Each structure stands twice: as C-alpha cells, then as structure tokens.
Amino acid sequence: MKALVYHGPAKQSWEEKPLPAIQESTDAIVKITKTTICGTDLHIMKGDVPTVTDGRILGHEGVGIIEEKGSGVANFKKGDHVLISCITSCGKCEYCKKGMYSHCEKGGWILGNMIDGTQAEYVRIPYADNSLYPIPAGADEEALVMLSDILPTGFECGVLNGKIQPGDSVAIVGAGPIGLAALLTAQFYTPAQIIMIDVDDNRLQVAKTFGATSIVNSSKENAIEKVMALTGEKGVDTAIEAVGIPATFELCQFVIAPGGCIANIGVHGKSVELHLETLWSRNISITTRLVDTVTTPMLFKNVQSGKLDAKKLITHHFKLEQIIEAYKTFGDAAKEKALKVILEA
C-alpha cells in the first residue's frame, strides 16, 4: 500500500509500505476512504513531538470500511462503514473507566504517533470496539471526518475545560480549525461574547461568519487593549489558547478576568512563561487536556441532525496520493486560505 511516512523534521514521503495485519484479536484493519491533516501533524513535522520516530505513517483522523477484523471484535463486521477516533481506548483500564481515554494504559493518542496512522490506504485500529464508531447509511463522510479529532478537541479541551456558561465573555486565540471548532461548539452554551484573535484576516472573517461577535487581528492592533475595551476593561471569563506557541498562551494570561479560566488546547513544543506575579491573587484556573473523545457520540448526533455544520470547516479537497501537495497547502494556510483539507482515496 501507499502511505505518508515521516522521516524526521521537515522530511516526509509518499511511499510503499507493507499492508497492516491483525496483531491482536481486538484489532481491525480499515480501508481508508477519507482522511485529513491536523495541526498536530504540522507540529510533528517541526519536531515538536519526539515520540514520533523515523518511518512512522502519520495521521489520526479518517473514515473507512472494515477490511478485516480480529476474532475479539464484537461490534463490527467486514464491510462496515466506520469513523476512526483519534484516541485509541481499551475500555477496561483505570483511566478508561474514568473516561480519560487519552491516558488509556494500552492506547491513548497512538495513531500516527506511537503506531502507524491513517494517512495511508489501510490502517490497523487496536481495540476496534472502543475506538471506532459506526456510520449510518447516507451520512456525509466529509463532515464526519471532523469528528475524528477537531470537534471533540475544540469542545472538550476548550469549551468544557474552559467552563463556558451562558452570558460569559470568551476569547479564542487562534482561528485555525481547532479554534473554529471551539467557536462552533462554544455556542452550545450561549456566551454573550466570543472574541476571535488571530493574525490571518481571512480566518478572522470566517470566524465572523461562524458566530464570533468580535474579531481582532493581533498583528495590526494591540490585542490586549482591544479585548479589554470590548469587555469594559474586565477581561474575559474564558480564554482559549488554540495555537501552541508562547506568545498566544501569554496573551491569554493578560486578557483573563478575575475568576476566569484559561483553557489550553494548543500543542506546545517550547516552554511558556507563567505570570504568577499577576495571576496569583486573581482566582484564575488554568486547564490542560488531551482530547478524550468522550463527547464524540453527542457531537455525532448534532452533526447528523444538522445542528452542527461540521462541513463548513473544509476548504480544500485532494486525492490521497496528492498528500504532499495537501501538506504544503495546509502548512501555508494564510496564503492558500486553508482550513481543513479532505484527502480522498
């Protein structure tokens, strides 16, 4: 089969790899029909994720059809149409029983990280009964790809961890796909203000159409002053960091109101500065999280019903064999006006 293979920072190739095989009775082999590229994949290409080693097939999102299953897989059969979760869950360990699937003792975020991932023609999915979701007939595959990772990530790590309540003021720093996923799902809780901050005017205009009440281009104006002015000099109740660089995490610390919550989503490859000299007395909470995908079933229903329009996050389409070109497009998002790309087998 063909697959996108990582060979160290800034080195990748579309090359021939052996077909995956059943290794455990709980495995399934899935033939990929559609997949995508995540911002985390870009962090991997920068060398920010040292657990990813030379030779790894990247990718942790997608939909496909079960080609083969192990004898221990009870919930699926060959030919079933499935959504692949970015998080692998055994369903039995201490962390899985707590709903912390991201810390599963036998799984977690392993696809495209510790084991070969979904940017390939076929992928092996461990613990298939707990790590796949059935796709009903007639469902929109492209929209459901957004449920593999970015929608539950934006919702769980940003909205839920950020403790957004009706009437709150919210700042989301980063209007990329994850930030926009947080924007879409934050509206479940009817905040009064959602302020989107980014350096890309196109993404900010998209955010406006997605429901942002205000937009701030931090490369053209003082974002701190603008947010404070928009909130009556109080700051925001929730600040969501959706980029993963020191400057954006620092910005969140300067716009948060007393009693507020800073929710980190971004993948950080470098240390950040924590301003405890100003935060220590302000009743601030700081949360971190790797997505657990516990909300995927609920989000699935909202996408299926049309209440959550996941498909509007998609801007570009490629064939799977065009993945190198797709990476260039996704990596140069400002120039290409790219959000999520769909790669079709």
TrEMBL record:
Look up keyword NAD and say if it applies: no
Q: Which Gene3D superfamilies does this entry report, sorted A to Z?
A: Medium-chain alcohol dehydrogenases, catalytic domain, NAD(P)-binding Rossmann-like Domain
Annotated Enoyl reductase (ER) domain ranges read: 8-343
List GO molecular-function terms, semicolon-separated. Answer: oxidoreductase activity, acting on the CH-OH group of donors, NAD or NADP as acceptor; zinc ion binding
Fetch the SMART domains from UniProt.
Answer: PKS_ER
Question: Which InterPro entries would you find in this protein's record?
Answer: ADH-like_C, ADH-like_N, ADH_Zn_CS, ER, GroES-like_sf, NAD(P)-bd_dom_sf
Its domain of life? Bacteria
Which cofactors does this protein require? Zn(2+)
Q: Which Pfam families does the record cross-reference, listed alphabetically? A: ADH_N, ADH_zinc_N
Per UniProt, the keywords (alphabetical) are: Metal-binding, Oxidoreductase, Zinc
Entry similarity comment: Belongs to the zinc-containing alcohol dehydrogenase family.
Q: What is this protein called?
A: Alcohol dehydrogenase
Organism of origin: Hanamia caeni
